[in-house]
Amino acid sequence: MKNTDIIHLELRGEHKEIAVIRLTRKAKRNAINDALVLALRNLFDGLPTTVRAAVLDGEGEHFCAGLDLSELTERDAGQGLHHSRMWHAALERVQFGPVPVIAALHGAVVGGGLELASACHIRVADDSTFYALPEGSRGIFVGGGGSVRIPKLIGVARMTDMMLTGRVYNAQDGERIGLAQYLVPQGQAFEKAFELAVRVAQNAPLTNYALMHALPRIAEQPADHGLFTESMMAAIAQSAPEAKSRVKAFLDGKAAKVSKG
What we know:
Low-confidence stretches: none
CATH class of the largest domain: Alpha Beta
Number of domains: 2
Strand content: 5-15%
Shape: globular
Radius of gyration: 19 Å
């Protein structure tokens, strides 16, 4: 993927196993336009096979301030439908792509920016982070998958409140209700997200794949279906050569045991 003035990819690590993906529309607070949506989709479609985890960051003071309203054009219903589906296709590549994605949140995580963050697997926020869904006050509705993903993080009632009233959550309250799993001092979100990505990249790839692709689907299934899917995924994961060698290392006393953090 060629780096552009809207998105940048850097591969880090001894084996280039960590992809650092940065939104680079700093002057626009990393607001999302169609070109950026398509660039995200293409980037995740074409990640090098060496990559085992990714960090998604925003250049400057803000992660992403949402849809770039300056590029909002008047569309009929059919055009609006296809535009929303374009976002869905791009953010599906983030959520159900090849590797786990850790978002480094700071400043504005607003509208489409929150939709993008909710497609990531782990969210690390710093103290400058704030969250909002201003679509309700602007006479529009979320169209990037937010109505599906965000209620799974915070519940329908809280999302309804955010859109009806324009409520803004600060970093502390956002972490409390589930918009982020980690909260760190200002300026340290990327450092923490990268640390987590390094740790995640050390997992067996098939286990990571199961957590990304099987776990959310199991959670949506009736209990008996979910239990059967779990059994199938467990059998597949433990049959991988890497899983067998890791279990053997543990049984031989060569692997670290779980301890207090």
